[in-house]
Amino acid sequence: MRSNRVGWLLLAPTIAILGIFGIVPFLYVLYVAFHQWNPFGANPYMIYNGANNFRRLVFDNEFLTSIAFTLKFAFFAVLSEVILGYFLAQLFMKEFPGRGLFRTIHTLPLIVAPIVVGSVWRLMMTPSIGIVPYLLKSWFGYDLNIGRDATMAFALTVIMDIWHWTPLVTLTLLAALVSLPKEPFEQAQIDGANRWQIFWHVTLPMIRPAILATVFIRLMDALRTVDEVWMLTGGGPGAATRYLGLHIWKIVFPKTDYGYGSATSVIVLYLTLVMCWLLYVALVARRDQKRAS
Amino acid sequence: MEHMIDLDEVDDEASTIVASQQRTGFLPIVTNWFDRVFVGIYLFVALELFWMRFLEQSIPLSVCHVLAIALGVLIVWRG
Questions:
Q1: At what angle do helices A150-178 and A114-125 cross, to 10 degrees?
Q2: Distance from A290 to chain B by nearest Cα, in Å?
Q3: B53/A58 Cβ within 8 A
Q4: pLDDT at residue A79 above 50?
Q5: What is the pTM of this model?
Q6: CATH for A65-292, among 2.40.30.170, 3.40.1130.10, 1.10.3720.10, 1.25.40.10?
Q7: Coil, strand, or helix at residue A196?
């Protein structure tokens, strides 16, 4: 009984912080989601409107389209980051001249604020002054204009995200790879396993928890990306890069429709949790269950 | 002399407690009650949104409330 009390006492600061900065704001957003509230409109007071915001949401084509774009963005960005991050982590496991310097330079994008990343990429991609359109034009004759080409705008948002966040994946996987024991690898080599078999049957199962944690973190981040994309494309051309975070931003700030924006945020949180839970069930829970039975 | 703690016995006791909390119902994974409440709430929301989009014009949403709550109870009870 005493140990329980000590346990709760030790947990209390975490629970208090989580409650103040996580649970209370979430409950407030949930409360606002069931109201019509435009504090800068003709009627600035909250008016309870039941599930009308959610009813509006399921018929909102812009919202449904932005879900599709966001899922596409998250899929390509996270998959590329994990694959590239793994190869870079393997590279950093080997000794080569300038490894420390390369590792430091490679980690630099992580310390740049997303809004700055977006601004820099915008400068680089602007047709009249950017270095990338200039080089593409002079080398390949390709006319890059992200204000007109929706596919290219989408691809560039993905590439920008990969550039910004691959170092995080690399560092996480590098930490996992460094901490692996040598014996299973030596044993596999003695048994005559080739490099692919060692990767598939030894390395991958052993770093699976690290990969999963990274995928969850990056998936959640990718689903709520706003500032980088806002700076680079502004959600355009048309609605080609209007991802969910940007969609919510446009509802809440320019339109000041707080009730509908809150309802949209709640649904985005719902989608994120469902996707993470499904991934967890597919990759962890069922596998653990099979192993136990 | 202090009472010696048998660590194996403590481990067995802990695994028995975990086993008693986790069980397999019709859901395809081992769950505890919190998992089932979680799944129940998520299916509740999904059903409500689906109903609003496709069925509310012909069948009132209150029918969905009843069905969703019944489904939630079933999952927590038997899932």
A1: 130
A2: 10
A3: yes
A4: yes
A5: 0.84
A6: 1.10.3720.10
A7: helix
